[in-house]
Amino acid sequence: MHTATDVTQLIGNTPLLHLKQVSEKTGCTILGKAEFMNPGGSVKDRTALGIIRAAQESGKLQPGGRIVEGTAGNTGIGLTLLANAMGYKSTVVMPITQSKEKIDTLELLGADLHLVGAASYSDPNHYVHTAERLAKKFAGKEEQGAIWARQFDNLANMDIHCRTTGAEIWEQTDGKVDGFICAVGTGGTLAGVSAALKGKNPGVTIGLADPAGASLYEYFKNGELKISEGGSIIEGIGINHVTDNIAQAQVDVSFCIQDEEALPYIFDLLKYEGLCLGGSAGINIAGAVRLAENLGPGHTIVTILCDYGNRYQSKLFNPVFLENRGLPVPHWLVI
Fold this sequence. Notes:
Blueprint: E1 16-18, H1 20-26, E2 29-34, H2 44-58, E3 66-70, H3 74-86, E4 89-95, H4 100-109, E5 112-116, H5 127-141, E6 146-148, H6 156-172, E7 179-182, H7 188-200, E8 205-211, H8 216-222, E9 253-257, H9 259-273, H10 279-295, E10 300-305, H11 313-316, H12 319-324
Parallel strand pairs: 2-10, 3-4, 3-6, 4-5, 7-8, 7-10, 8-9
Antiparallel strand pairs: 1-2
Helix pairs in contact: 1-10, 2-3, 2-6, 3-4, 6-7, 9-10
């Protein structure tokens, strides 16, 4: 009998999905790692598990203790599910600008949810800094203590992606992967996968797909943290500072992706390939197409399909929201 003993064993080992339309368009084999199949519905389940395991091993996370994190939502969902399953408490600090669906999900899961106003990273009221202060507060008053998960700078993040995500991609492609590309929220996925793949073959091309209005495109292209023109509605990706995780990323090429370029890919994926995915998958697929064009036909490229689109239905699949921002609208939703 083959059974999973708990929810942690459901995380990872996600399949690679052949993306038919973009593969035919580019003459490359473009594959998406189906991270939406994790129990919390996103790639961030891996990050959450890596952080918790590292904190347990170091002795910083005591039985019954509290895990505090500042997050755009998905890491908070993963941490809360794991806290529920492993006997911990979860406190999540999230910008109020994030989708209603993610806020509702965290409340459903029983997280101690703190919504804060959107602020730049340099502002002390930024959700990450707020989480750090809350963690210190809980650590001082709760008997079992509290930890700050610190996903942006905690290298347990990239480590689990090196040991699992990257290793899985290498095995699933039989080592025939020519390129990997994804966007950055914390940098853990990109850093970890780049370490794993380049550790096997230094010739694998690693790319960054950066949404408009973020700074890492310019950082990896010109060595300067400069905000690119425009902006993006895509949640959970696009940062303007170099995290400890992103500092470890081995990036060969970077692309700046506008929402107008990315959104049609996820709309077409739903209409023609039966997958409803979030906006970061659109940025990633657009990046994979750019990388395919850069490498030329005949190459195998992998990217990340981060989470489900219904987590952003009130924005990403809302025709009024999209029209008000001059963005493409799926034809079946046109009013």
